[in-house]
């Protein structure tokens, strides 16, 4: 078991390193020297050279990569080529906002999807099951930001029940923090739960045809108790896989939702940086988003080990 | 043997053939609607989709403007028809990129096993941490917003999906004894890949195409909504949503029209994928049993 | 219903929509009686048992009555509320596949204890756990306390089935339903598990309904038998009577096809078509002279070895296949950070030779390495040690290009007749595949002619060429496989369990076809099977394998009569033979 956790961890570190190389290559090598971009189109070679020296981009790429890479582990992302300010404190600030949003959305999505998907499976040939399936099919087709717009138009602009946008940190006022969180979390979770319902449904349907569920029935358990006692934990394994894969979709979904609700998270920071062609900031934020995804994948891998004795033994 | 029998009995009674066909039919109809809209827009649109006409701005649907007009008085129906072109173009090209790179990689990994498989699958795991939209945002940051960079980014981000499906299917086929028989009959690997593996995983790949297409439509819409997709003046559904932002509370039609268009396209491709899956899966199961 | 009557089933019918799967089935069972339900796949035997437990899939509809002693409702129509308390308490069931029938995420002890807790046989978790360990001990699981703490994947197949039996008998049910409980198990394990079931039901006076396709198993386990064909009981009665003087042609055909020691005048097995001449073993043994003339009944293999001129043991002939010190090992996933990866020896130092024209059987249980050996000889796997020379080609270190000579000399037939045919290819293309290799000069028309001729030799109609595999029955599919294997006129035919996925009545036909073609094409045959009787019928020489090693090799009849190695002796003793079982019952 320790061996397995160790290999999970090793795989995570390796993936993270490869991801940094990929991000560095894409953001730093492809576009060319940031000094040229920062200096503007008509700058003299002297200005470019001095900027390059200031940024450190006149050094070999390998050195630059190592510099950036070793900085990452210390939480130091470097200094923006555009705003000339330290990127790290800004990232630290925004990442909290994004994490709150994403974690709550995933929790809500699972809280909706697990019961709904199970009901859809158990009652798969009854109207209620078909209805849930149809709703989830429809939910998947609606982009998260569109749901966000609909929610804002209705609950904020029409009914005025909730603020349309903005962000208040929890320490500054918990109720205003919550009231501004409701709509974006609902928008994010709505689409996610529609996707997850389908997977929960098919996982539970698959389990329902397993031999061991028939054994449980043959022991004298009622269909629902057999499913609850023997089925759900088995069904959790494929659902966990999907949750892990969907997490990256949720994170990128949050980027768009932040734009709809004007929330100052990593998404807003990323889009602002793209608008300014602030490539080092883009590079840093992308790396953080990817790292969060990889960490979630690692946690899920570890959870498998706890959940499934067959993996534990191997 | 009994299990096989029971599941067959279940199939014949549980999910009637009409249900299978209706999903496929619904999906095909919705996809056809989007496709025909795009084709129609090539030869005919009621109005010039980019021509502003301040005298009729923000008008509700009428006999002259079937879906109404936007804040500049442009005809919404014309803009939706032309927007379908961008949606389909991005979808077709990104799915092609993903399928053409991912499928051979997946088959190669599944047939060759060992280090090839390990490296391909690890790489696709890492690439999976870069969703299509994130990759597209990065590309937009580097090269600026354009339809081409959106297509390439979405296509590349969808490669792992194809590689994984192709590999899983290949492994299944390679485990079948008919492949051993082919090898025993001295069939070279390329012929095994083309004659045995590819025909047997075509169904799965079609499903993947459909699902990827839906995801591409969603990613393109989000990208345009962020202002990083196809630049103006070409109308795209995502940017129509973005431009409707000021009118969310007052003139919801501007949001509803492109929103419904996106939903129809995504729903169409998802239903098509589901229908294809129902159509192909039992056959594969039979081949395996 | 009288006091002694345990179960009374009448008019049981099961249908799926328009299709009737079981029709008008009636029988009764006395307390403690053991009844066998035999039939081939699709005969409805499993559905019958599932219906008695009230666990048929919702899509199937059932009618008729089933009365169990002391239970007021009709078993077939009783509501779930009434049936649930009965299941696992008064009626229990043991299923075919013990691995999938146990919850993979739950410890064995907890799964056994659960059935005690559901029916409140024992009030507390601790008491149930203690009783579970006792039950595991009673089904002879070594170290039951430790096994209770294990997960299903940590036990062997036989042990898992013992767990299922412990679970089924935990509450002393009146009726035990067994659905092919030993079909997925090895021969030696099968006989132990059968023994266990026998002991347990006898000790408890439990009524047994035993479902199987295997007549020898029924003869061992039951006193009465119901013969099911296409959802109808065609014959029922005492085993002795039914198996010695079958009334119904179907029963006679089943008996004839199951009896691997009886052959017709050509030395071929009896099939459904030739069953008319078949004499059931009980009568053969009883009557000093055969009632119907079977002049010198002899197995195919025996007939061959006595008549063909070059005796295969003649060492002067250059061998066609030579394996020397052949080994194949696999690395398992690491179990500890330090130390080497565990190694599994699938094959260890295998030595043997096969001369041209010889028929050699390889027998062994799962994990014995017999399939690995075949695949190495066929050039589909590579040895990790030693070498094998097949038809002049050395396998060790050979690349695909080096194997082309081997590929034209050796062809293989697999176990699964559907899995070995590409579902998306037409039969003509499947059979023609070996003809499409570099160096073959046949044009399309010549290929087609060759394919049609080959299909004809395996007894298939010419129009089958344009159809797809799923349009054929299991036996026909195996004929297609054989056609593909022989179309290129190889010298060596290798068969990996060629009949073990087939129904009894089809098995004999396919074995006869193989025997005919081996004669016609003068093939060297290498046949892998877990079933000694198949090998005894077809092969002059046998190689017995266990755990990747050859434990014994030699003349089939001699080894069969006088095994030298204790494992071989155990294997032979465990193999159930219909005539022996009937003799035992007498």
From TrEMBL, chain A:
Residue ranges crossing the lipid bilayer per the database entry: 12-30, 99-122, 134-157, 177-200, 235-262, 282-307
Segments forming a coiled coil: none
Boundaries of every ABC transmembrane type-1 domain copy: 95-300
UniProt keyword annotations, A-Z: Cell membrane, Membrane, Transmembrane, Transmembrane helix, Transport
Main location: membrane
Topological type in the membrane: Multi-pass membrane protein
UniProt xrefs under SUPFAM superfamilies: MetI-like
Location in or out of the cell: Cell membrane
PANTHER family to which the protein is assigned, alphabetical: DIPEPTIDE TRANSPORT SYSTEM PERMEASE PROTEIN DPPB-RELATED
Family label: Belongs to the binding-protein-dependent transport system permease family.
Protein name: ABC transporter permease
Provenance organism: Paeniglutamicibacter terrestris
UniProtKB/TrEMBL annotation, chain C:
Domain ABC transporter: 7-255, 321-572
GO function term, MF aspect, one: ATP binding
Keyword Disulfide bond appears in the UniProt entry: no
Record bears the keyword Ribonucleoprotein: no
InterPro entries referenced in this protein's UniProt entry, alphabetically: AAA+_ATPase (IPR003593), ABC_transp_ATP-bind (IPR050319), ABC_transporter-like_ATP-bd (IPR003439), ABC_transporter-like_CS (IPR017871), Oligopep_ABC_C (IPR013563), P-loop_NTPase (IPR027417)
Superkingdom in the source lineage: Bacteria
Pfam families: ABC_tran, oligo_HPY
This protein's UniProt keywords: ATP-binding, Nucleotide-binding, Transport
Family indicated by similarity: Belongs to the ABC transporter superfamily.
Protein's UniProt name: ABC transporter ATP-binding protein
């Amino acid at each position: 078991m320790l061996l397995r956790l160790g290999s999970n961890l090793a795989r995570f570190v390796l993936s993270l390193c490869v991801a940094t190389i990929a991000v560095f290559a894409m953001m730093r090598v492809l576009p060319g020297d940031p000094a040229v971009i920062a200096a503007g189109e008509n700058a003299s070679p002297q200005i470019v050279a001095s900027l390059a020296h200031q940024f450190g981009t006149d050094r070999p790429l390998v050195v630059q990569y190592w510099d950036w890479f070793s900085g990452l582990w210390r939480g130091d992302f470097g200094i923006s080529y555009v705003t000339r300010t330290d990127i790290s404190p800004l990232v630290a600030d925004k990442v909290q906002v994004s994490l709150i949003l994403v974690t709550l959305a995933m929790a809500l999505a699972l809280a909706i999807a697990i019961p709904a998907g199970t009901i859809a499976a158990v009652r798969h040939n009854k109207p209620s099951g078909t209805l849930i399936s149809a709703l989830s099919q429809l939910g998947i087709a609606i982009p998260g930001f569109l749901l966000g717009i609909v929610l804002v138009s209705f609950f904020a602009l029409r009914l005025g029940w909730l603020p349309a946008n903005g962000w208040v940190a929890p320490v500054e006022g918990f109720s205003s923090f919550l009231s501004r969180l409701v709509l974006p979390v609902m928008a994010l979770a709505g689409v996610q739960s529609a996707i997850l319902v389908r997977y929960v449904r098919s996982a539970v349907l698959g389990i329902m045809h397993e031999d061991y569920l028939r054994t449980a029935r043959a022991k004298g358990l009622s269909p629902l108790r057999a499913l609850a006692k023997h089925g759900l934990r088995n069904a959790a394994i494929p659902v966990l896989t999907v949750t892990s894969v969907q997490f990256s979709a949720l994170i990128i979904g949050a980027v768009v939702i932040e734009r709809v609700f004007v929330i100052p998270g990593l998404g807003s920071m990323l889009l602002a940086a793209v608008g300014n062609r602030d490539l080092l900031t883009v590079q840093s934020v992308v790396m953080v988003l990817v790292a969060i995804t990889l960490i979630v994948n690692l946690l899920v891998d570890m959870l498998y080990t706890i959940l499934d004795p067959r993996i534990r033994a191997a | 043997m009994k299990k096989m029998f029971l599941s067959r009995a279940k199939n014949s009674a549980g999910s009637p053939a009409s249900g299978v066909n209706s999903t496929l039919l619904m999906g095909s109809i919705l996809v056809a609607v989007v496709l025909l809209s795009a084709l129609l827009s090539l030869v005919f649109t009621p109005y010039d989709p980019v021509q502003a006409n301040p005298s009729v701005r923000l008008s509700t649907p009428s006999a002259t403007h079937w879906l109404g007009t936007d804040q500049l008085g442009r005809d919404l129906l014309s803009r939706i028809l032309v927007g379908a072109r961008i949606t389909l173009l991005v979808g077709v090209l990104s799915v092609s990129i993903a399928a053409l790179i991912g499928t051979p990689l997946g088959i190669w990994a599944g047939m060759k096993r060992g280090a090839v498989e390990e490296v391909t699958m690890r790489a696709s795991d890492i690439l999976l941490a870069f969703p299509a939209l994130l990759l597209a945002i990065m590309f937009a940051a580097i090269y600026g917003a354009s339809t081409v960079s959106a297509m390439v980014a979405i296509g590349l981000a969808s490669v792992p999906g194809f590689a994984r499906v192709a590999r899983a299917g290949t492994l299944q086929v390679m485990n079948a004894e008919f492949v051993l028989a082919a090898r025993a009959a001295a069939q070279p690997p390329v012929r095994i890949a083309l004659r045995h593996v590819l025909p047997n995983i075509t169904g799965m790949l079609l499903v993947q195409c459909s699902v990827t297409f839906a995801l591409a439509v969603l990613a393109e819409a989000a990208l345009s909504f962020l202002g990083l997709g196809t630049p103006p003046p070409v109308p795209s559904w995502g940017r129509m949503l973005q431009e409707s932002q000021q009118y969310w509370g007052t003139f919801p039609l501007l949001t509803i029209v492109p929103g419904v268009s996106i939903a129809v396209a995504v729903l169409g491709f998802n239903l098509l994928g589901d229908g294809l899956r129902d159509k192909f899966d039992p056959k594969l199961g039979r081949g395996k049993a | 219903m009288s006091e002694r009557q345990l179960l009374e089933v009448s008019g049981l019918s099961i249908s799926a929509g328009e299709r009737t799967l079981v029709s008008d089935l009636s029988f009764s069972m006395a307390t403690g009686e053991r009844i066998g339900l035999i039939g081939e796949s699709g005969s409805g035997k499993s559905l019958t048992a599932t219906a008695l437990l009230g666990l048929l899939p919702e899509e199937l509809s059932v009618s008729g009555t089933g009365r169990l002693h002391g239970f007021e409702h009709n078993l077939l129509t009783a509501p779930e509320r009434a049936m649930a308390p009965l299941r696992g308490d008064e009626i229990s069931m043991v299923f075919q596949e013990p691995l999938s029938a146990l919850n993979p995420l739950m410890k064995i002890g907890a799964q056994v204890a659960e059935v005690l807790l559901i029916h409140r046989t024992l009030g507390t978790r601790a008491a149930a756990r203690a009783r579970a360990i006792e039950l595991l001990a009673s089904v002879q699981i070594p170290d039951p306390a430790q096994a209770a703490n294990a997960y299903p994947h940590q036990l062997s197949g036989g042990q898992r089935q013992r767990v299922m039996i412990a679970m089924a008998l935990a509450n002393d049910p009146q009726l035990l339903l067994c659905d092919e409980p030993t079909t997925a198990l090895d021969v030696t394990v099968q006989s132990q598990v059968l023994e266990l079931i026998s002991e347990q039901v006898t000790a408890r006076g439990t009524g047994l309904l035993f479902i199987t396709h295997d007549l020898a198993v029924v003869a061992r386990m039951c006193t009465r038998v119901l013969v099911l064909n296409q959802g109808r009981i065609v014959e029922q009665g005492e085993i002795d009577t039914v198996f010695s003087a079958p009334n119904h042609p179907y029963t006679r055909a089943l008996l004839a096809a199951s009896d691997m020691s009886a052959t017709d005048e050509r030395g071929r097995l009896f099939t459904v078509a030739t069953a008319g001449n078949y004499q059931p073993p009980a009568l053969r043994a009883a009557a000093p002279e055969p009632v119907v003339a079977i002049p010198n009944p002899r197995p195919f293999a025996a007939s061959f070895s006595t008549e063909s001129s070059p005796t295969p043991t003649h060492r002067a002939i250059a061998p066609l296949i030579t394996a020397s010190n052949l080994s194949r090992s696999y690395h398992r996933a690491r179990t500890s950070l330090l130390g080497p990866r565990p190694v599994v020896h699938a094959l260890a130092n295998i030595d043997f030779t096969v001369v041209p024209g010889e028929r050699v059987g390889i027998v062994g249980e799962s994990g014995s390495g017999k399939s690995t050996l075949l695949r190495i000889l066929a050039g589909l796997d590579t040895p990790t040690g030693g070498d094998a020379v097949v038809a002049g080609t050395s396998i060790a270190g050979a690349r695909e290009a080096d194997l082309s000579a081997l590929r034209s000399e050796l062809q293989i037939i697999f176990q699964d007749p559907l899995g070995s045919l590409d579902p998306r290819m037409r039969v003509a293309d499947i059979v023609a595949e070996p003809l499409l290799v570099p160096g073959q000069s046949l044009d399309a028309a010549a290929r087609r002619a060759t394919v049609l001729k080959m299909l004809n030799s395996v007894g298939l109609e010419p129009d089958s060429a344009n159809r797809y595999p799923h349009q054929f029955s299991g036996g026909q599919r195996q004929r297609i496989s054989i056609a593909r294997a022989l179309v290129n006129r190889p010298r060596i035919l290798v068969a990996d369990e060629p009949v073990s996925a087939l129904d009894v009545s089809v098995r004999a036909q396919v074995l006869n076809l193989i025997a005919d073609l081996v004669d016609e094409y003068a093939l060297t045959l290498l046949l892998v099977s877990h079933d000694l009787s198949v090998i005894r019928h077809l092969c002059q020489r046998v190689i017995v394998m266990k755990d990747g090693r050859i434990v014994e090799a030699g003349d089939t009849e001699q080894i069969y009569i006088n095994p030298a190695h204790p494992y071989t002796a155990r294997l032979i003793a465990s193999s159930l033979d219909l005539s022996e079982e009937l003799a035992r019952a007498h």
